[in-house]
Structures are given as C-alpha cells and as structure tokens.
Design a protein that fits this description.
single chain; alpha/beta; 33 strands; binds zinc ion; binds adenosine-5'-diphosphate; 23% strand; six-stranded parallel β-sheet
C-alpha cells in the first residue's frame, strides 16, 4: 500500500510531525512529493490542507490510515530543494514546518478555512446544542456571527458539548482567464480569408485582426471585447470556422513600472575586475564560496553584481539578488532590469497577491532567469541557481521578526550550498558578524577602497551642538549647516537633510496635558493611518477614530506629535523661502508608488532639498547632491540595544555616501551632542575598519555577537504572574542543559511589556558552545504545545536583531 507523509495545516494546533495517509489507487500517480492535498484530520469531517513530503510503498503503522481525499496541485508547488529547505528551516528557527512551508509560497496558496460548530459525540440531542444549531447539523462561524452567539459557542465549547471543525474552503481558480489563439500561420490565415463568404464582414475583420496581432496571441477574450470591440458571437463563429480556438491562460499581471533604458557592461576598474573574476571563478567551478565585498560608497559594487550575474547566465544558470526593501531601492532594481530586461522578475511588497503569484509562476516555470526581491525572495523557486547576491547585507530587514524567524543570509547560504554556487554579500558597512567571519577566513574578503573615477570621499564635519554658538540658535539648524545650505542653493546644486528618528510612528498627543492616545489592549501609542483616517495599533490591529478633543482634559490642543519632519520642513521653508523642499517620510510615502515618484522628482532636479528620515539614507545615487546634513545623529545611539553603535555608524556612513557621487565634491555636516563617540567619529572618516576594531573590542568585553551566540526566548500570557512563573520554569529547564560557561539573563519584562492583552517576559542566553541547547529548545517548543492552549505562548529567536 502506498502511503504519503503529509505535513498538515491545522489552524488550532501546530506540530512538526508529519502524518501518514493512505494513497488510494486512483491517486497513486498524482500524489507525489511537493503537491498539496486535502486530508481528513481528527474526528469528524474536518478537512485540512497538507503538503506531501514523502511517498513510500509501505507503512509501519498497524492501524487503519486515513486516505488522501483530494489532490490540489497538478504539479508540485515545492521542489525537492524546497522540501529539504523546509526541514532545515524548521529546525534552525524553532518554527513549525507548516509555517515554514507557507512562508516559502505566495499567499494565494495558503489554505482558507471555514469554521463550523458541530455537536460533540453524545450531545447531539442536548437542548442547548440543538438551540444553538437551530436543529441543523452544523453552524458556520463567519465574521458576521453575532457576539452573543459567539459567547454561547464559547460556553458550550468549555462544557465540551460542541466541537469546532475546520473545512478547507475551495478557492475558485480566479487566476485563469479565457483567451483565444490560433493554430494557423499567417499564410494559412490568408488562405482561410479567401474562402470566407464576401458578406461575412465580421469574420473578414477578425482574420485581419488575427493577422496583424499574430505575434501577440493568445489574447484575452475580455480584451477583445473591451478594447477591440470584437463580440463573443464573432469569436464563436470563428471557432466553428476553425479560424481560432479558445484556451485558458493564467493572467499575467505585469507589475506596473517604468521600463528603464537598456544598458551594457561598463569597462571595469581594476578593483571591480578582480572582484568579478574571483566571483566568476567560483561560478564556473561550482564552488559555494561566500564573498564579502567591503566597498566604500560609490565604489561600483552594483556593476560587480551585474557582471557576475551575467557570468552565471552565460553558464546557463540563474541568479538571485536580494535588496533590503524594494520600495527603498528603485534605482537598484532599474539597473538590474536595464541590464537584463525581460529575464528579470521583481518580487516586492507592493505587489497584490495575484501579481505575486504571477511572478512566482514565471520564476517557477523557468521564464525568468534573474530574481530581485526583498527578504522573502530568498525562497524564489529558481532552479539551477548560479549566483546569490545580498546587497547591503548589514540591514536588519533581512531578519524576519515573526515565525519563522529566519535571516535571509542563512537561507541564502543554505541554497548556495545546495546549488553549489557562490554567495556574494556586499556593503560599505558590513555587519560585524560577517566581517568577523571574513577575518577568520570563513568568507572571502573583497576590498573595494576607491570610488569610481577616484572621486574623493566626502568631506565630513562634525558639529558639536553643545557649544554656545549652536545651542543659541532657535531651530535645529546650526550656523554652519545653514551657511552651507545657502551655498548649495546658490550654486544650483542639491542637498539631502536627514532627520534621524527612533521609530516610524506618528502618534497623537495633547499639548495641554501630555495625554498620549494609547491602545486599550497594548502598552503602545496608537499611530495614525492616513488612508484609513484612523488611529491604529501596530500590534493588535485595534483601530479607532481620531479624537478632536483630548479625552483626558477636553482641550482642543490635541494633535499629531509627528515624525518631526514636518517641523523641520517648516524651518527650512522659513530660512530658505525660495528653495523647493521635498519631504520623504512615512506620511508622504504611504501611497503605492509615491516613494519612487519622489525620488524621480528629486533626480530630475525638481526640488533642491530632499528632507527625510532613515529611508533616504540607502542606495540612492543623485549626481547633483553635494551636501548632506544630519540633524540629530545621536538618536539611534540611545536605543537600548547592543547594536546601537553599529546601527548609528551604518546610518551615518550610508547617508554620507549620498554626497559627491559625481564630479562635484561632496560635503557632509553631522550635528551631534556626542561628538567624541567613536561611532560618529569613525563614520565621519568613513573608516569602517577602525570602527570594526573598536566595536569588536567592546563586544568582546561585554560578551555579545560575534563573540557569543545569542538566543532570545520570550514568554507571554494574559496574566502577568503566569507569564513570570512560566519564564522562571523555562529558565530552570534551560539551566539543566547549559554548562556554567553560558550566560543566562532574565527573565525580564520586554520594553513593550504588554501587547495584544498579553504580558511579555524574556530570557537571553549567551553562549559559545552548548551542544545540548538546541535539543533542549526543541523539547521546550514541543512541550509548550499543550501550554499554548492554556494561553501561554513562547517564541525562540536565534540571533535577534533587536533586543527590546
Ligand atoms: P556603490 O553601490 O558601491 O555605492 P555604485 O554601484 O552605485 O556604487 O556606483 C557608483 C557610480 O559609479 C554609479 O553611478 C555607477 O554607474 C558608476 N560606475 C560604476 N562602475 C563604473 C565603471 N566601471 N565605469 C564608470 N562608471 C561606473
Ligand atoms: Zn489633554
Ligand atoms: Zn493593541
């Protein structure tokens, strides 16, 4: 008997164990690894979706196996590579395999479930149950179900009189469209036209249409109707005349975007050429080396990426390139498309789920050779990968904050090993981890120290905001920065002003009593969502209307204590009334495409000053920018995280690199209250190596990454004392598996101690070599499955990017 090992998607319970199902004879040929199936689960008629991981010809199980009910996919949605990767991912991120599998696939492939209430065995005739079900066998729970009914359901559930069953909702395949095509070539069409009756005008016109659009076939029927006014009746007649046929096509929603001009290879500098050669050698020799390109801003890393990708394509292979966030790096995406055109697929968060599915299919069926995308693109179903690139590899956005808590760099390394291809990490400010690995020879270090055309690095000045002259100014601009902005404007050049902010939120505050509008469930302030016109909680989704009177003191002076950028914009307008200022922050970039539009505007010199938050620091290349001003360099220094200095150094170096990228010399002015801090001083010198040494020394002293591994375990419960109790139990469990060399910190409440009505405590484990830790954590994870139903949840985060 053939059996399949299936990872099931059970909404209320997660488990890493695959379940065995019998493959009915009728399905033997279609149940293969990587397809999705529908299976029964538990008692009753509960049907869930699952992924077939393995197929075997016998089972060791002696009881009766349930059969596979239905096969969802005609061909596997998971390759062997992806199946293997899911095991590794679940193991290393302490996530459940089902969430790993779902993370790898586009959203539309996620099962949707309907919930039904059914009577528990023996309670079919219970009066309360019968009343709830209204004498029917089941009651569907929907979003319209009334609260009163929900309460009754909860009560009967607690009394074990009813069960909730989940049934997979069969999604209609809304992605296919009807289209027409023809088997006739143009000569045959002409011949057919001659045979048509002369009064069959519509048919004559249709053949003419087919002739002139022969290369565009197949064409969607709806397009023919709407755009070309060809009726369905005409098409039907033509089908009978054997002129055309109807087919189903998957609609391609080509993401909108400007098509950049095609570019060709630049002549490489010596440094670039060495880099391309080293990487190409690994591609050709199928070696899974990891390269770290440490290249100053403007050293031409992108050209190295492009020519290396080309090498992979020449070898008949594909290439994967990750960027921190597509919307923040439109210039990079354009460069890749400019070089490789239609062979490129771009995966970004702005895509609708349908568009995403389309891009995924194009990659999966091999019509795409190069994929560019943010973090999750690391799971792109590319086959035969010859090169993986991670640009700005130090960016925190490569780590997912949610389950599975993976780092794209680790997944990329796994895929590079699987595909025997090199992995290239690039940055002007590599993460300490990566730079340390290069130090040890685990990664191959490629240094690019010169700017293209030997442009000088920008001239950086640090302004001490504590001194008398600067603290005397009314606004936020020091005399030096003011003066230099004048000069830039006079020379008709451009400037960038960075306002370094801690978070991204704009919240509501009363200027009379200091009241801040907070979420009733969480300990955080609600943030304003412009498109909703409402205040919303980031954590639990709670939303409410914007109050116009302070709920606390009834004052009308309640307003947005925004990002601060608006205020800075006002100051700029007052000092330079004739200057055109573009503001780029969460508020001005909320709409899809608005970020790219602002960048486009600035690059066409339709504005003189680009004012913005962290989002302007990355990857932008404006040749006319000769001045960068940083308003408050210190903000990121004050975050309570051991990566604070590293983040500050990275930000300042990156933003400084925006100045003087072309012929004109660049100038950077950094305003700070900590002028002697090494992160600020080294960034001013664009001196990564000095910063690296100093920071490594301090990390060594305090026992942090990369000298120690860090694992963060957080526990949450609705009742604070329970959360605390559970975290102490957890600490004790951990102690049994750890040597006395490991350092255990906590439990301590997290910075936002309460979210979604739950209290959070965390434990930090710092260690060098603890062979028993992994297994212990796995054990804890599985043990707490039962606890999860009692309201506990636990999250394990390896190498967290933030500790808060
Ligand atoms: P990085 O990513 O290292 O900061 P870029 O790749 O953006 O640097 O390159 C900086 C500028 O130099 C870009 O405008 C790019 O087009 C140009 N450039 C790169 N390589 C060359 C080359 N070999 N010859 C001429 N110009 C180049
Ligand atoms: Zn008030
Ligand atoms: Zn909330």
């Amino acid at each position: 008997m053939a059996v399949a090992e299936v990872i099931v998607d059970v909404p209320t319970m997660q488990t890493n164990r695959p379940f065995e199902y019998e493959i009915p004879d009728s399905l033997v040929e279609v149940v293969i690894p990587g397809v999705r199936v529908e299976v029964g689960f538990g008692k009753g008629k509960r049907k869930v979706q699952g992924f077939v991981m393995e197929v075997r010809d016998h089972s060791d199980f002696t009881g009766k196996l349930k059969p596979i009910e239905r096969v969802i996919d005609v061909k596997p949605v998971l390759s062997q590579e992806m199946i293997k990767l899911s095991y590794w991912l679940a193991d290393t991120t302490y996530a459940f395999q089902i969430s790993c599998l779902q993370t790898m696939l586009p959203n539309v492939m996620r099962a949707k479930y309907k919930q039904f209430v059914v009577a528990s065995e023996g309670f079919e005739n219970d009066a309360d149950v019968k009343k709830l079900l209204d004498n029917q066998l089941t009651l569907e729970i929907t979003k319209d179900t009334e609260e009163q009914t929900l309460r009754k359901i909860a009560k009967l559930k607690r009394a074990h009189k009813i069960d909730i069953e989940y049934v997979v909702e069969n999604q209609a395949n809304s992605l296919t469209r009807q289209a027409i095509t023809t088997d006739l070539n143009t000569d045959q069409l002409l011949e057919a036209k001659d045979k048509l009756r002369s009064n069959a005008k519509a048919q004559h016109n249709l053949v003419d249409f087919l002739l002139s659009h022969h290369d565009d076939l197949p064409i969607e029927v709806s397009n023919l109707e709407n755009q070309f006014k060809i009726t369905r009746a005409t098409l039907k007649t033509a089908e009978k005349n054997n002129l055309l046929k109807f087919i189903e096509i998957t609609k391609r929603r080509k993401p909108v975007g400007i098509n950049p001009e095609r570019t060709s290879n630049l002549e490489l500098t010596e440094e670039q050429s060495t880099a391309v050669k080293d990487i190409s050698d690994s591609i050709v020799d199928d070696k899974s080396d990891t390269f770290l390109i440490e290249g100053v801003t403007g050293s031409g890393k992108t050209e190295v990426y492009l020519q290396s990708i080309q090498k992979a394509l020449e070898q008949g292979k594909t290439a994967l390139m990750l960027v921190p966030e597509i919307s923040l790096t439109p210039q990079m995406v354009n460069r890749v498309i400019g070089r490789f055109g239609d062979q490129v697929a771009v995966l970004h968060s702005g895509l609708s789920s349908g568009e995403r599915y389309d891009e995924w299919s194009r990659i999966e069926n091999g019509s795409v050779k190069v994929v560019v995308g943010a973090r999750s693109a690391v799971f792109a179903p590319l086959d035969n990968i010859g090169l993986i690139i991670i640009d700005e590899e130090h960016e925190a956005s490569y780590k997912q904050d949610d389950n599975p808590r993976y780092h794209a760099r680790d997944v990329a390394k796994w895929r590079a090993d699987y595909n025997n291809c090199p992995l290239v990490l690039g940055s002007a400010t590599p993460s300490l981890e990566s730079r340390a690995r290069a130090q040890k020879g685990v990664y191959k270090l490629i240094n690019m120290t010169k700017r293209i055309n030997n442009h000088a690095l920008p001239h950086v000045q640090i302004v001490d905001m504590r001194n008398a002259e600067n603290s005397a100014v009314k606004g936020d601009f020091s005399p030096l920065l003011q003066d230099n902005l004048w000069r830039v404007l006079k020379r008709k050049e451009q400037a960038i002003v960075l306002l370094n902010r801690r978070g991204y939120s704009s919240f509501l505050m009363c200027r009379e009593c200091g009241f801040v509008l907070k979420c009733p469930n969480c300990d955080v302030s609600l943030t304003y969502h412009k498109n909703l016109g409402k205040m919303k909680c980031h954590y639990c989704g709670h939303e409410e209307n914007v109050p116009h009177i302070c709920p606390n003191c009834k004052s009308k002076k309640i307003g947005f204590y925004g990002t601060g950028t608006e205020n800075i914009e006002k100051q700029l307008n007052e000092i330079y009334p004739d200057a055109r200022v573009l503001r780029m922050d969460v508020d001005t970039t909320r709409r899809k495409g608005s970020h790219a539009a602002l960048i486009e505007k600035f690059s066409k010199h339709e504005a003189d000053i680009l004012l913005g938050t962290q989002m302007i620091a990355k990857g932008l290349d404006f040749p006319n920018v000769t001045l960068v001003g940083v308003i408050n360099a210190d903000t990121t220094l004050s975050i309570s995280d051991y990566r604070a200095s590293e983040r500050t150094f990275q930000l300042l170096t990156q933003v400084s690199g925006r100045a003087g990228r072309a012929e004109k010399e660049g100038h950077v002015i950094i305003q700070t209250y900590n002028p002697d801090h090494y992160a600020i001083k080294d960034a001013a010198m664009q001196d990564y190596e000095t910063f690296y040494k100093q920071e490594m020394y301090l990390r060594h002293q305090s026992g942090y990454t990369p000298y120690y591994f860090t694992t963060l375990i957080s526990v949450s419960h609705q009742i604070e004392s329970q959360a605390l109790k559970q975290s102490f139990w957890l600490k004790k469990q951990l102690q049994t598996a750890l040597s006395d060399k490991a350092i255990l910190l906590g439990p301590s409440p997290t910075m936002i101690a309460r979210k979604q009505n739950k209290y959070f405590y965390q434990i930090i484990v710092k260690y060098k070599h603890e062979p028993e830790l992994h297994e212990k954590l796995m054990e804890i994870l599985n043990d707490t499955q039962g606890e999860a139903r009692r309201g506990f949840s636990i999250a394990i985060d390896n190498e967290p990017q933030h500790i808060d």
